[in-house]
Amino acid sequence: MADCDLCTVAIPTVVPVRIFVPRFEHSYPEGIWKGLCESCLKSAKETADKLASSSSCGTAGKCNLCGAIAQLQPVQIFRPSFSKGQEEDSVMLCKKCLAAIQKADKEWQEQKANEHAEHH
Ligand SMILES: [Zn+2]
Ligand SMILES: [Zn+2]
Q1: Closest ligand to residue 92's CA
Q2: Closest Cα partner for 9 from 104, 81, 76?
């Protein structure tokens, strides 16, 4: 089992996303791998897509994934909740992380399509 780095849900497979953490720049110049569940991946990707066509410059703060101080965009997620099943929440992500998620989503969809093709 793995935990989603955004909503913390425990699932068998998370989607790998390569994130550049400014704090780990020297020890991990290639970036580090984070894992997102498909629901967070989709939500973050939609935010990234919308951002491309909007003029919103975001809110300054600390990115929930890489910890960078940057202009952030809110991404709506659902956290697992014991009382309600799931609870709506939002995380703040920087443009770099959103771009990394867009890329990861594309690769993930391609990988899924390939797997599908191989099985048939
Ligand atoms: Zn998640
Ligand atoms: Zn970030």
Answers
A1: 2
A2: 81
